[in-house]
Each structure stands twice: as structure tokens, then as C-alpha cells.
């Protein structure tokens, strides 16, 4: 069912926690001013008379827990006693999933995931006898004395999302009591709309839902609820019950001093708008997300002198007690490895990994704790979201969601990428030592996200490809890239004779630099004052590739081939040749690696598919060079150009790689002796799928050809030709000419075609017909405007964007790309008209079929 393939969009700017209602007592924070209390008591007389019950009568049977709000439980009713001093203060409402049933576990929804966060304010409405709850977006700032500030207040007001009746005032009228069941038990969606947030689109069944417990602390409340629904698809109905934890967290009265982001370094950000009377236009900034690391007041002069000091509040991650013991050490090491980066920023003991020793007061969903949450699930992944104070970008709490099956991906990566150079990766069962090393790097990568760092997919391009074959270089520089935030998994470039041992990603030069840039404390109270210092730090390294940041790009439309996922080195063509050599060594050993005597070939089939996917990945890395641009976030004075085409020689090398290694799948990858025993196998919700060799070849080849002749790529090549001149670039015309010669060489020579020759021509023609058909549809449309296809990555977890949004495809229906595709189809048609009677019978039938398809596709009479 579609239900089992729910797609989640994670909101990483916020992520949170929770805990059970207990009898644990805590002290209420703050003191009440006597004069203010008396004033409130006088003004509340009318409200007390109309509330129905006195404070003592309402709560005479209550069980009470003290905290930021005192929480009273009377039978199944829950009451918050909200002190008036907290009215108009900012609270962060954070919702997190605490437990799930099998049905949505399989869809990738698991414990620890954040569903929705919002900033709220409580306000007293005395006349109505209610407490209103407003949600605000704290994105705007203006000086209090400026005239425009009144306009800011009027144009950026909060919206009321909830109203609670005041049931009573406390004995000194310093607090109001409100009943809160309906916002936590599913009756209302104002505080928590979990089933819409996770994509089910259903409503809560209130008769099967309830608040389970609440716990109170000096800075937050934690509410645990069981919410149930029914998902219906066709004639099938499925009950779903989810435990949800909601935190109500008091935000700091004085926000952290924010730090402005810069596109030349990769931090997650939250937007901020500044208005003032002196402006001629609004100032728009991005605040980086980071923890509040500050030296203790008594240590600040030492810090300024360059001495290492401990921060006021260190970053502490707790390891989920549910984590298998053999992996706890590796996960902790991955966290502690970041300490060197914080030392470069001037802090010692700034980040710590701890195990939960006393579980009596521990709940992973409580925002007091940052936790590596271990999820028992078939999902193979890990992620590192965070709870953010959007007023300043301060990270209040972070979590790593660690799915158990992430080890499956690690196992396949190690076997396929390093099996040729590391005999331990070829073992039927990988050693705990080998797996622990891999878990350690995944831990470091995900913790990097929780520290505010985005992916740096351009880091790996800083290392020369041949240097990855050097034992001394890889030992000195650390692994595969200068940043662990790249997806530079394992060293597939090194060859067996190189004896390279340092083949795992590690925290590198860029990571330490980024942490220092984001976390070094500056004794300033205005982020504008920091700008000259921050920019000077960037200028020091602006021409050093080790410090370069390259954003993650949309996988289906890579613009800058230097910033790709899972590539290595500064030349993806050369690196891919090395990768293929190792892949060719490992494929014949798959049955030995993945199956013991008496085993079936299920695991071998999955490993073979992983090898084919690795080959496809190399093809994608190389293809990105053709029609690619090198992009820079240039600033005045750095002497850099914002964009330039990939050099002609590199693009020609890329096409030759595709011609030799990709257009026809290598025979060693689909070797008959291997495939006679097992087929490439992929798991699916309905069981394993096995793929036959011809099908694998056809689909893989079509995928490469279709992407190679994508409209965006051809239009980038047109842009390059128009701007730099055709003598300086690899043109789209040249690409079509070379492809035509490659696909139709046997036809031009009048030969009979084999089955794979026919497949090649069919795929080429079909790729052109499909994309041309879409363009022809636009020609007949009544709309005056074409779609704008911007080169940007989808909003997934992290919300990462490509370097810049460069639009190349406006009015694509009248573009050179459309003309060239139709011209190539007509060229093929004329060739087939001349050659339609050459070759054997099946070749002639093939030509007739292609001519019919082209005639129909181009509407040739």
C-alpha cells in the first residue's frame, strides 16, 4: 500500500523532547514582587468571582508537580498554573515522536523524530477570563526608538492559536489555572497535529487517545500523549497509535548574540530581517545555528590571550541506553573526536559524550538532554536534527537518530568500495573492529550536523586523485577529504599495491576551521560588529582548496561537478577509472564474500546490485562534467569569477569515459557465469525483486543517456557557447555529433546490428523523443509563460540549497536544446531512410520501428 511508503519532510531548524509525569518535586524558578502581586490581586477580583470554583476547591483532590508551571492532576484532568510573570515571554513548543507501531516504522517514521515546533506566547485576557496563546515568527528586529518600529509591530503580529478559560487564580493572584487536556489529547490540533505532520492526513480519534503523564522542571514541561487514528486506503483500514511528547520550553530572556552566516562557509541558518529609520532598504541576514559556548567571566581575559578555557555550559550528548553495547564506544568516540575542533576555537572539554547511568530521571525526549537515539528499524540511515531558538540561532538541544540498519549500508559500502584493498572487508561477517571504525565516522558526521554544519560536498575535490593512493598523504591529511561533512565514504581510488591504510573519512582541516569560525567567542553584543573579523578569517583561506565549501546539489541536476555526493578527488573522471579497476576486482568474488556453503544467493544478489549501483554512481560523477559550471561565491576583492564552464579537455575526457565504460555496460559486471547462479536483487515492501541482465543493461544505459541530454545540461552548454565562444567550450552540437557517431556507427557502415546495438539506438532515440515530446506539448499550450526550472536542491532534511539559483531554462520550448533534439531526430530519420534496406531482417525491422516512432513523435506526415 502507498501508506507504507510515506515520505517525511523533516524540519531540522527545530527538533525536541519529552518525559513522564511523576511525583518528582522541583523548585519553581523566580520570585514574585510583593507590590506587583498586590496589584494583580486587586485587578483580579472580578475574575475570581466568575471562575466558578475557588483555587482550593478546584484542586483539593489534585496531585501537584512543581516546575516552570505547577502541574495539577485531578483524576484525568490536567491543569497548568501559569504565573503571570510568564505572560508575554517566549516559549518554544516542541513535538517529538516517542513510539510507533510497525506499520509506520517500516515507512521510516521512528522514535526521536521531531514533527513540529513553534514559538508561542501566553497572554492574559482579563475581560474574557481567558488565557490566549499566540504563535509568532521572531524573524524581525528594529531599534526601539525608531519610528518604523511601530510599523514593525503592526505588520508582524502573532496569531492566536488557542484560548484557555481561567478556572481559578492562585491564593495570591500571581498565577492563573487553566485546563489543558484538549491541546494534548488530540481534541484540538493547535499544539500538536502529528498525523498531518508525518503525512498521514488523518484526524485523531479522541476516544482512543489520552494524556498519559506530565512532568515539570524549572525551565520546561514535558507532556506525553497517546494519539490514535485510522488510515484507510481502498478497502483496507489500519489502526495507528503513536506516542507523542510535547515540550513547553521557556526561551532565554536575553537571546544569545547571533552570528551572521556567509555563503562561503557551510552552516545551517535561520532568517533575520532588520528594519530601521536610516535604511533605504530592509537588511536581510541569515543567522547561523550554533550552541551558546561562552567562556566563564573569570576566564575571559585568559581566553582572549589564546589560552584554552572551559565554556560556561558544555555540549553534552547522552547515548541511548537501548544502544547495543558493542557500538557505544564507537559512537562516543565519534562525538569526542570533535573536541580537537573546539580546541581550535579556544575551548577545552566543550563537547562530551556520556552514558546514562541513572535512568530514574532520564527521558530522551526531554529537551534537557541531547541524545543519540537508537531506533530499531529496517531503515538504513542516520540523521542529526536540532532544537533552535529562532530569535538568535542558538541550538538548545540536538539529537542524532541512529537507525539500527545503518550498518547494512556501511557493510555494502565497505565491501564494494574497499574490498579490493582490504581483505577484512571481504570477510563473510565483518569484524566488530571494522564495523566500529565505520560507525565512528558516521557518528562524527551526524554530530557535525547537530553542531550546525551543513554538508560540504566540495571538500573532497581539494585532494588530488593520485594523492589518495599515497599512504603518507592519507595518513597526514586524514582519510578521504578535508571535511567529514562531505559524503566521501571510503577510499575507492587506492589500488591494492598502494598499501593505503587510512581509508575512512575523518574530521579534517575544513571542519576545524568551520567550528572556529562559528564558535570562537568575540566580546561583542552586536553581530554587525563581528562582520569585519569574520570576513578577515575567510580572506585568510579564500584561495586554499582545503578550506573551500561546496553546497549539496540536486542529485538529478548537478551543476558544479566538484561538489558531488560520494565522489573523491579533484578529477572525477580519473577517480572513476580507479574505482572501476577495484570494482572489477571485487565483482568475481561476490559469491564467495556473500554466501557460505549451503546458503542461498539472496545476499550475493544484493551485493551484486550494490556493485552495479556503484558503477552507475561513477557514471553520474563523470557525466556531471559535461555541461558543468565551476561556481564560486565570489565577493569583491577576491579576484574570483562567479562561474565558468568546466574546461573543454575535462568534458572530452568525460565523454570518452562514457563511451568506453558506460554506454555499453562492462561484460565483467554482468558475467554469465556469475548471473547464471543469482541475479541482482533489491528488497521491496512486497519482497525481493530480481533483475535480469538485459533489463539491467537497458535501464542503466537509458538513465545515462536521458540525463546526458537533459534540457538543463544542453542549455548550460548553450549559455557557455554564447558567453565564452564556441572555440573555448565543449558545445552541445559537438555532444550530439559524437553521440550520433557512437550510436549509429554500425548503421553508417551498413552492418547488421546485434541486440545491444539495437538497444543503444532505441534508448538514444527514445530519450530524445520523450524530452522533445514535452517541449512540443509546451508549444501547443495556451500559457504565455514557461516553467522556470531553478537549479536547486529539494528541501529535505537540513534544507540545504545549491550554491546559487542560476536559471538556464526559462522559455525552454524555444531554446537551442529543443532545436538540437529535433534536428538530431531528423538526422537519424534521414539516415534510416537511406539505410532501411541494409543489414539482416531483424536490423531492417528495427530501422522501420525507429522511423515509425520518430515520424509519430515529430508528427512527420
TrEMBL record:
EcxA zinc-binding domain residues: 429-747
GO MF annotation terms: metallopeptidase activity
GO biological process, one term: proteolysis
Name of a matching Pfam family: DUF4953
Domain of life assignment: Bacteria
Residue intervals of the DUF5117 domain: 112-296
Presence of the UniProt keyword Protease in the record: yes
Biased composition (Basic and acidic residues): 30-51
Span list, region Disordered: 24-51
Signal peptide per UniProt: 1-18
Alphabetized UniProt keyword annotations: Hydrolase, Metalloprotease, Protease, Signal
Domain DUF5118: 53-100
Stored PANTHER family: PEPTIDASE M1A AND M12B (PTHR38478), ZINC DEPENDENT METALLOPROTEASE DOMAIN LIPOPROTEIN (PTHR38478:SF1)
Protein name: Metalloprotease
The organism of origin for this protein: Pararcticibacter amylolyticus
Amino acid at each position: 500500500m502507498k501508506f507504507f511508503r510515506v515520505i517525511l519532510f523533516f524540519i531540522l531548524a527545530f527538533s525536541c523532547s519529552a518525559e513522564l509525569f511523576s511525583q518528582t518535586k522541583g523548585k519553581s524558578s523566580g520570585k514574585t514582587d510583593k507590590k506587583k502581586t498586590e496589584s494583580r490581586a486587586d485587578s483580579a477580583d472580578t475574575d475570581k468571582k466568575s471562575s466558578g470554583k475557588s483555587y482550593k476547591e478546584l484542586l483539593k483532590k489534585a496531585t501537584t508537580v512543581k516546575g516552570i508551571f505547577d502541574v495539577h492532576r485531578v483524576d484525568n484532568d490536567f491543569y497548568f498554573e501559569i504565573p503571570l510573570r510568564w505572560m508575554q515571554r517566549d516559549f518554544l513548543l516542541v513535538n517529538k515522536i516517542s513510539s510507533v507501531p510497525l506499520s509506520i516504522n517500516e515507512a521510516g517514521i521512528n522514535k526521536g523524530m521531531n514533527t513540529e515546533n513553534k514559538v508561542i506566547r501566553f497572554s492574559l485576557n482579563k475581560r474574557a477570563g481567558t488565557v490566549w496563546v499566540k504563535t509568532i515568527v521572531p524573524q524581525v528586529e528594529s531599534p526601539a526608538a525608531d519610528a518604523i518600529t511601530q510599523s514593525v509591530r503592526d505588520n508582524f503580529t502573532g496569531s492566536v492559536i488557542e484560548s484557555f478559560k481561567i478556572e481559578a487564580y492562585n491564593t495570591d493572584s500571581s498565577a492563573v489555572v487553566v485546563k489543558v487536556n484538549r491541546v494534548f489529547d488530540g481534541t484540538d490540533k493547535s499544539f500538536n497535529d502529528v498525523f498531518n505532520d508525518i503525512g498521514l492526513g488523518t484526524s485523531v480519534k479522541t476516544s482512543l487517545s489520552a494524556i498519559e503523564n506530565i512532568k515539570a522542571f524549572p525551565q520546561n514541561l514535558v507532556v506525553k500523549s497517546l494519539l490514535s487514528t485510522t488510515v484507510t486506503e481502498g478497502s483496507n483500514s489500519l489502526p495507528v497509535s503513536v506516542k507523542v511528547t510535547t515540550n513547553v520550553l521557556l526561551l532565554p530572556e536575553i537571546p544569545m548574540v547571533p552570528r551572521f552566516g556567509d555563503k562561503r562557509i557551510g552552516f545551517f541558518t535561520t532568517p533575520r530581517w532588520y528594519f530601521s529609520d536610516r535604511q533605504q532598504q530592509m537588511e536581510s541576514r541569515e543567522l547561523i545555528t550554533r550552541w551558546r559556548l561562552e567562556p566563564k567571566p573569570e576566564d575571559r581575559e585568559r581566553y582572549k590571550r589564546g589560552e584554552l578555557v572551559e565554556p560556561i555550559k558544555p555540549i553534552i550528548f547522552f547515548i541511548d541506553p537501548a544502544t547495543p553495547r558493542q557500538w557505544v564506544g564507537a559512537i562516543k568516540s565519534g562525538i569526542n573526536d570533535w573536541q580537537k575542533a573546539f580546541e581550535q576555537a579556544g575551548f577545552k572539554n566543550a563537547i562530551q559524550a556520556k552514558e546514562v547511568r541513572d535512568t530514574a530521571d532520564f527521558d530522551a525526549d526531554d529537551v534537557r538532554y541531547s541524545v543519540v537515539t537508537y531506533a530499531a528499524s529496517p531503515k538504513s540511515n542516520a540523521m542529526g536534527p536540532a532544537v533552535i531558538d529562532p530569535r538568535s540561532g542558538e541550538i538548545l538541544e540536538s539529537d542524532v537518530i541512529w537507525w539500527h540498519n545503518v550498518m547494512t549500508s556501511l557493510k555494502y559500502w565497505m565491501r564494494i568500495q574497499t574490498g579490493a584493498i582490504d581483505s577484512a572487508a571481504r570477510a563473510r561477517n565483518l569484524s566488530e573492529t571494522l564495523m566500529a571504525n565505520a560507525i565512528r565516522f558516521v557518528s562524527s558526521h551526524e554530530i557535525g550536523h547537530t553542531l550546525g554544519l551543513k554538508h560540504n560536498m566540495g571538500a573532497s575535490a581539494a585532494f588530488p586523485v593520485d594523492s589518495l593512493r599515497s599512504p603518507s598523504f592519507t595518513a597526514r591529511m586524514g582519510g578521504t577529504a578535508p571535511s567529514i561533512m562531505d559524503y566521501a565514504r571510503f577510499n575507492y581510488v587506492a589500488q591494492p599495491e598502494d598499501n593505503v591504510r587510512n581509508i575512512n573519512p575523518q574530521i579534517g582541516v575544513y571542519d576545524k576551521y568551520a567550528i572556529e569560525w562559528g564558535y570562537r567567542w568575540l566580546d561583542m553584543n552586536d553581530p554587525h560588529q563581528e562582520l569585519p573579523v569574520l570576513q578577515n578569517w575567510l580572506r585568510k583561506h579564500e584561495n586554499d582548496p582545503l578550506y573551500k565549501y561546496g553546497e549539496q546539489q540536486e542529485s538529478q541536476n548537478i551543476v558544479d561537478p566538484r561538489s558531488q555526493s560520494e565522489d573523491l578527488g579533484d578529477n572525477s573522471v580519473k577517480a572513476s577509472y580507479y574505482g572501476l579497476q577495484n570494482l572489477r576486482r571485487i565483482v568475481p568474488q561476490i559469491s564467495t564474500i556473500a554466501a557460505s556453503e549451503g546458503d542461498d544467493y539472496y545476499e550475493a544478489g544484493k551485493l551484486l546490485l550494490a556493485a552495479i549501483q556503484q558503477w552507475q554512481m561513477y557514471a553520474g560523477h563523470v557525466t556531471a562534467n559535461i555541461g558543468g559550471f565551476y561556481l564560486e561565491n565570489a565577493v569583491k576583492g577576491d579576484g574570483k569569477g562567479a562561474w565558468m564552464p568546466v574546461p573543454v579537455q575535462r568534458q572530452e575526457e568525460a565523454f570518452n569515459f562514457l563511451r568506453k565504460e558506460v554506454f555499453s555496460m562492462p561484460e565483467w559486471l554482468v558475467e554469465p557465469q556469475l548471473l547464471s547462479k543469482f541475479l541482482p536483487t533489491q528488497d521491496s515492501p512486497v519482497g525481493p525483486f530480481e533483475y535480469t541482465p538485459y533489463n539491467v543493461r537497458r535501464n542503466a544505459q537509458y538513465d545515462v543517456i536521458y540525463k546526458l541530454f537533459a534540457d538543463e545540461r544542453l542549455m548550460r552548454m548553450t549559455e557557455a557557447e554564447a558567453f565564452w565562444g564556441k572555440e573555448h567550450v565543449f558545445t552541445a552540437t559537438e555532444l550530439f555529433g559524437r553521440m550520433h557517431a557512437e550510436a549509429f556507427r554500425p548503421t553508417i557502415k551498413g552492418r547488421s546490428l546485434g541486440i545491444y546495438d539495437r538497444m543503444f539506438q532505441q534508448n538514444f532515440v527514445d530519450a530524445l523523443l520523450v524530452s522533445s515530446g514535452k517541449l512540443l506539448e509546451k508549444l501547443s499550450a495556451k500559457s504565455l509563460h514557461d516553467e522556470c526550472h531553478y537549479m536547486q536542491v529539494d528541501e529535505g532534511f537540513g534544507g540545504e540549497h545549491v550554491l546559487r539559483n542560476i536559471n538556464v531554462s526559462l522559455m525552454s520550448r524555444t531554446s537551442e536544446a529543443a532545436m538540437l533534439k529535433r534536428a538530431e531526430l531528423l538526422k537519424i530519420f534521414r539516415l534510416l531512410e537511406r539505410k532501411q534496406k541494409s543489414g539482416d531482417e531483424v536490423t531492417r525491422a528495427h530501422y522501420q520501428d525507429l522511423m515509425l516512432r520518430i515520424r509519430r513523435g515529430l508528427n512527420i506526415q
